[in-house]
Write a structure and sequence with these properties.
Order of helices and strands: HHEEEEEEEE
Number of strands: 8
Shape: elongated
CATH architecture: Beta Barrel
Radius of gyration: 17 Å
Helix content: 10-25%
Distance between the termini: 43 Å
CATH topology: Porin
Number of domains: 1
Length: 178
Amino acid sequence: MKLTKLLASTIAVASVVLSAGIASAQNVPTQETAARGMNGSYVGAGVSAGVTNGGRQNDAATFGGNVQGRYAVPNAPVSVRGSVLFGGDSTAIIPTLTYDAPIAKNTNVYIGGGYAFQTNEGYASQLGNKNAPVLTVGAETQVGKNTVLYSDAKWGIDAYRGSDADALSLQAGVGYRF
């Protein structure tokens, strides 16, 4: 049942993101559409909030910070990303691979998956209290020559010990584009 919900949610979000990318790719190329999307890589920091708990001790919702980075794969609509969520009793380290879709000048939305590694399993982080697969969806925009704003949601699947609960965390921050 949980896998069915996960698959349905993933397909729904992916179809919206992919259809936006296909629609923009079908437009007649102009100088304006050629400048769409955000290229480049960045590293940034900001806030992170876990908004769920597993219903047991050492798995409460946690507020803290994040450090995130993006490496844009040249000539491909994908990026390799890394996130560190800290501030609880455990730190979540999350490598991910995302599909990036341009939606406006210097702005992308992205969807992808990865895995959360907890530094202290059994203790609360913003994304549960055990190692778990993660789905992410977010947006990023370049607001200055080297300044990026980003925000995303991370969904940790079966991310609590002794519980089949999922974890959800929300992140936002500012980054340096290089």
